[in-house]
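Folds vary. Our protein:
___
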Amino acid sequence: MVTAYIEITPFDVVKYEVDKPTGYLKVDRPQMTSSSPPTLYGFIPQTYAGDRVRDLCPGATSGDGDPLDVCVISERPIDRADILLTARVVGGLQMVDHGEADDKVIAVLAKDPIWGDVQDLVELPTALVNRLVHYFETYKITGGEVPPVTIQRRYGREHAFRVIEASMQDYDETYGTSVTSEA
């Protein structure tokens, strides 16, 4: 299980992001396309995409320097952000954005009555994973320009925990001790 901090809900047409200097949630940008995030979206606290995360992502020149992103699937609509929740990691998307490793961990809300027993990405409906892929391939489109974002592969729980562990080690090296994840 991991703790996830949620910045955006599937109902948001604005991308919010935690302002690192203040810790407050701020407006990053309006969503530029009609696509909305298909799941809750945020990050795993006390993680950092640095060299170890980059090393797990062929073709990336660096980590993106941010906490590890997480998408959390919930059967019941959660329509507010700026919350913490507990989630079970089931897989992820290996994404490169402007040459930087920018993995998207996929998880299910702990104790969710529909999704709570899912253990691995292959147990999720393909259409739902395809929506996540489409969202991340298009969410930074501005003025018709296609950003240099690629989803290199989809991966299961085992690799997701390797990425999380690498991001925790990157965090430890940069900031100190993290206590985020347990298998």
Notes: Residues 157-175 form the longest helix (19 residues).
